[in-house]
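Crash report, auto-generated. Payload:
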Amino acid sequence: MDKVDKMDRADKMGNLDKVHKMGNLDEIERIELAVVGGGPAGLAAAVKAAELGLESIVLFERDNFLGGQLVKQTHQFFGSKDQYAGTRGIDIAEELTDKVRKEAAIEVKTGAVVQGYYEDAVIGYLEDERFQKVKPEKTIIATGAAEKMLSFPNNDLPGIYGAGAVQTLMNQYGILPGEEILMIGAGNIGLIVTYQLLQAGVKVKAVVEATDKIGGYAVHATKIRRAGIPILTKHTIKEARGDSKVEEAVICQLDENWNIIPGTEEILEIDTICLAVGLTPKIDLALQAGCQMAYVPELGGDVPVRDEDLEMTEENIYIAGDAGGIEEATAAILEGELAAINAVRAISGGGSDLEAVYAEVSEKLADLRRGPVGEEIRSGLKKARGDENAGRDRYSRQRRYSK
Amino acid sequence: MDENDIIICRCEDLSLAEIREVIEEGYTNIDEIKRIIRLGMGPCRGGTCLQLIDRVLAEYQGAGRDEIQMPTNRPPVEGIKLKEIVGDAVER
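Recovered output after restart:
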């Protein structure tokens, strides 16, 4: 081995040493609060935490813009006046984003993907093509949801979209997904997207819904029916057909056991199928943190077990918005605020001001979930909270995950 | 209905027929199926297929969906290049 080679090697060893040091906890930047996700829940959480006096908050968003799903929501919201009723989702996104940008305590990282939640509560994230770490005292997970898929023959043909993708194309980029569409799912998303497609001049052939009732608000359903579009309950898609893209959809009727009733098949000529069959929480980080999960269909599937204050079964980590259970943007905003209040309380101790804000936000959230519309959510949340007297680790309906 | 045409895992292009094949060979939990045919190991990290596979397994086991054990969730959440982890600390 000659001298140059030796030096080269020594130099590389030195550099390797640097790599190992990346794991040294003392060298990791510390912050008070990390908020993962720049949608309604995350934005609201960051703003509230700053308003309540935290000084180092980092807001992570994987997209290059803030607002999450709100930026696609061109329709006006329902509900009470002080909860954005009559305001379009996209305007709510702008309002919340402005507030975030005005707070000096919030460092906004867009285009930053949180890749992992590690032991010792360290967050690893990818920004500017570099994997970096930060150690927050508290973390709020507001990662939102992912769309569910259906299994039917040829479900991978081009022209089959999730409703989120259709909204992105149409409302965010001004591109029509197709000309003749079959909508699957009559929940609020299915109905709202159907109406938006109609407004954009797309022909919607039918809306099919597997259950026996329309899940979305009657107001939306009425508008669609008035436009002459059939909403077929107890119907599903049997298969998609086409060579290189979707050309036909076979729909059929279901009996009370969800079996296809033979002879009820009907062929629709379409070039696009839109799936609006529900969302499921994005729970990756909560799982990595070791939090317990419960299978709660009312909330979209596996959700983290959490207490009233939105803290999960591992300490220092809170959940807010769709990541904890599928609800609406207004609920996500309030949950974000609530999680922030609780995180601040845990960091800086309580105070009468804090308690007043806590009471106010909890009351708003309870209001929103009151009445028949909120019944499913209330029942789901009860399951997700488990037996409150049983302590952190004794949730009876825990979903098993491999360790 | 041809189950070869029903795609369960889009990232790894796995059909329901292929999944049934390994289940019938005796690989009856998601962790095993993952290791044998890479179910859920593509870019979406199981985001789509895990919502479909537990129902398939529940049917075989005569169990509820919520009784099916889910696989370990590990970092990274999305694909990441080795270069992005080590940076320029190690060349070549």
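Post-recovery validation: The longest strand of chain B covers residues 7-9.
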